C-alpha cells in the first residue's frame, strides 16, 4: 500500500518532527509513506474574504498539482465523516479491497482546503469539530494510520 500525506506548511518544531519520524519508521513495516510539504501562503492579519479565497485557491492548486489520477484522495475536512479508529481501519481495508491501494491524505493550511480540492476528494474525513494546528494534526493522522494497520493485522495496540 502507498500512502501519501500532502500538507500545506512546513514543520519547524523538533518535537513534532521527531514524532513524525517515529510514526514514519513504524509505518514502514506496513506501507510506503511519502510526505509532501507545500508552501503555505501568508495570510494578512485583516484579510478580506476575497483575499482568503485567493489564498485557499493558490494553496489548492499546489495540492492538486501533487495528486496523481490513480490516487484515492481523502480530504481532511471539518464537514467530513467522523469515524472511530476501528471504523477508520475498516474504511482503509475496504479501499484496498476495491483496488484503492494508493491513498493520499490532504491537510490544508490555516484557512482550510479550496473547493477544488474538496471536489477532487474521493472521501472527506473529520477527526473532530475542534480546530487543531495543522502541524500537530499530521502527527495525529499518522498515529491513526499506524493504528489502522495494527487493528487490521490483529496486533496489540493500546486503546
Automatic annotation (TrEMBL):
Annotated compartments: Cytoplasm
Provide the residue positions that the database annotates as binding S-adenosyl-L-methionine.
Answer: 108, 127-132
Q: Which reaction does it catalyse?
A: pseudouridine(1915) in 23S rRNA + S-adenosyl-L-methionine = N(3)-methylpseudouridine(1915) in 23S rRNA + S-adenosyl-L-homocysteine + H(+)
Q: Which Pfam families match?
A: SPOUT_MTase
GO-annotated molecular function? rRNA (pseudouridine-N3-)-methyltransferase activity
Please name the InterPro entries in this protein's record.
Alpha/beta_knot_MTases, RlmH-like, tRNA_m1G_MTases_N
Name the UniProt key words of this record, in alphabetical order: Cytoplasm, Methyltransferase, rRNA processing, S-adenosyl-L-methionine, Transferase
* Gene3D superfamilies, sorted: 3.40.1280.10
Keyword Cell cycle assigned to the entry: answer is: no
Answer whether the UniProt record assigns the keyword S-adenosyl-L-methionine to this protein: yes
The UniProt entry, under SUPFAM superfamilies, shows: alpha/beta knot (SSF75217)
Q: Which EC number(s) does UniProt give? A: 2.1.1.177
Write out the GO cellular component annotations: cytoplasm
Q: Which family does it belong to?
A: Belongs to the RNA methyltransferase RlmH family.
Write down the HAMAP family for this protein, in alphabetical order. 23SrRNA_methyltr_H
- Function field: Specifically methylates the pseudouridine at position 1915 (m3Psi1915) in 23S rRNA.
Q: NCBIfam families, from UniProt?
A: PRK00103.1-3, tRNA_RlmH_YbeA
Task: Summarize the subunit comment.
Answer: Homodimer.
Its recorded name reads Ribosomal RNA large subunit methyltransferase H
What is this protein's gene name? rlmH
Amino acid at each position: 500500500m502507498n500512502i501519501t500525506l500532502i500538507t500545506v506548511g512546513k514543520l519547524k518544531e523538533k518535537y513534532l518532527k521527531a514524532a513524525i519520524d517515529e510514526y514514519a519508521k513504524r509505518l514502514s513495516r506496513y506501507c510506503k509513506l511519502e510526505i509532501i510539504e507545500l508552501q503555505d501562503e501568508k495570510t494578512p492579519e485583516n484579510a478580506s474574504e476575497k483575499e482568503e479565497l485567493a489564498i485557499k485557491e493558490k494553496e489548492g492548486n499546489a495540492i492538486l498539482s501533487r495528486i496523481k489520477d490513480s490516487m484515492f484522495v481523502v480530504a481532511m475536512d471539518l464537514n467530513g465523516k467522523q469515524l472511530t479508529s476501528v471504523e477508520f481501519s475498516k474504511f482503509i481495508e475496504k479501499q484496498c479491497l476495491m483496488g484503492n491501494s494508493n491513498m493520499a491524505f490532504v491537510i490544508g493550511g490555516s484557512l482550510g482546503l479550496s473547493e477544488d480540492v474538496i471536489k477532487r476528494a474521493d472521501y472527506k474525513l473529520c477527526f473532530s469539530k475542534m480546530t487543531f494546528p495543522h502541524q500537530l494534526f499530521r502527527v495525529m493522522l499518522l498515529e491513526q494510520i499506524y493504528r489502522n494497520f495494527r487493528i487490521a493485522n490483529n496486533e496489540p495496540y493500546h486503546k
